[in-house]
Write a structure and sequence with these properties.
68% helix, two-stranded antiparallel sheet, 11 helices, mainly alpha, elongated
Length: 279
């Protein structure tokens, strides 16, 4: 019989401790291990490694989550700093702060390398209001990068991102008006023109309601979409009406965006329509 140098129990044989197991145990704080131990100690050491590894992983995940939370909170100061720089015409400093803000969003939402931030990342209701902030950031970056030809690629990227995010915000008509005006003085008017085309293409198809209520997620807009999908689409005459609507409504929506004083009347008319179709 042989006494195990670790536990002191008399056993028939000892087993060498695997070097990889020793290194994991040392990383977990287990030191001064004998080169050979009994079978019971081998099993005990393996359980120690498994338990400590799980604990380390949990600690690492908690640390990552805490880091994300701190970054999420720090974004507010970056936006404030960037807007202050914009007001002082310190455009380079503003761009740096804005890009740091967007990098924080990539980290918080775990955006992989080569991928782009998308509106779907903000599906949690507590963060949906951030969509308007993101859209305003890309609008400022689009104008900042227009100041020099070497930033055309960055300007184009800002234009693409803005066209995606803007449709989910109440600032859609305001940005479109500003972009139409900005196109006349921009150094890269072709990019601004592309942005306007992309924005029109990306816009939700309840054009008039979205324009009138200035929010594609407004309750009234959702009700009209539901009526379209559950009622109109089920009848031939309804599908024909939808086709005609899609043909002419974008022009009406643009008219509303340019003449916002018309919107209260249109909203009132749409609410009456919603009451009628809801009966």
């Amino acid at each position: 019989m042989i006494q195990c140098p670790r536990c002191g129990i008399q056993v028939t044989e000892l087993h060498p401790v695997d070097p990889e197991l020793i290194s994991k145990l040392q990383a977990a704080g287990e030191g001064n291990l004998p080169p050979q131990v009994c079978a019971g100690c081998i099993s005990d050491l393996k359980r120690t490694v498994a338990t400590s590894s799980g604990g380390v992983l949990m600690q690492q995940e908690r640390a990552r989550e805490q880091h994300r939370l701190q970054l999420w909170k720090s974004r507010v100061m970056l936006i404030k700093k960037a807007r202050m720089c914009m007001s002082q015409k310190l455009y380079s400093e503003a761009a740096i702060s804005y890009e740091k803000y967007l990098k924080i969003l990539d980290i918080v939402f775990d955006i992989k390398k080569g991928e782009k931030l998308k509106p779907e990342a903000f599906k949690e209701s507590a963060r949906t209001t951030e969509l308007t902030v993101v859209a305003s950031v890309y609008w400022d970056l689009l104008r900042i990068y227009d100041t020099h030809e070497k930033y055309q690629d960055r300007m184009m990227n800002a234009a693409k991102q803005l066209s995606m995010f803007i449709q989910f915000t109440p600032i859609y008509p305001d940005i479109i008006r500003k972009a139409e005006s900005f196109q006349k003085t921009a150094k890269n008017p072709q990019i601004v023109k592309q942005f306007l085309k992309m924005s029109d293409k990306e816009r939700p198809r309840c054009f008039i309601a979205t324009s009138a209520f200035e929010n594609p997620a407004a309750f009234e807009v959702m009700q009209l979409r539901a009526f379209r999908d559950t009622q109109l689409r089920t009848h031939i005459w309804g599908r024909k009406f939808i086709a005609v609507y899609y043909r002419y409504s974008p022009h009406i929506a643009c008219l509303l965006d340019k003449h916002s004083w018309l919107k209260p009347s249109v909203r009132a008319a749409l609410r009456v329509l919603i009451k009628c179709v809801s009966r």
